[in-house]
Amino acid sequence: xxxxxxxxxxxxxxxxxxxxxxxxxxxxxxxxxxxxxxxxxxxxxxxxxxxxxxxxxxxxxxxxxxxxxxxxxxxxxxxxxxxxxxxxxxxxxxxxxxxxxxxxxxxxxxxxxxxxxxxxxxxxxxxxxxxxxxxxxxxxxxxxxxxxxxxxxx
Length: 154
Description:
This protein has helices spanning about 10-15, 35-45, 45-65, 70-90, 100-115, 125-130, 130-145. It is an all-alpha fold.
């Protein structure tokens, strides 16, 4: 399964055919059918980088370092920087242009996930007393992101 969201083939208007004219038949290697809501939802989540962050977080916390908070903030920031780089590579395979919408939404999704799973914001007093905010933000952002569809043929 590809990490890239399948946008489907462009419709006849995008191919330059007249209204009501069917699009050119799909040939081998042509665009796959459009991704459904669940497929888009899963591919907008930068799960690989969230997993990377969680593993690094476990190592940092287990190390007993005196500056754990600083290291966690640095780890979260470095992981966040990796999100668009990873998604750029993952969505531009097989000679396709990178899917910028997926890269953008995945980059926005990462700090929301960190906020919800108890990343560095836990060190902030206001968040430590209101952790439910991260969970609510994650629920609504994830729902809305799944509704966003890239343009066909993108």
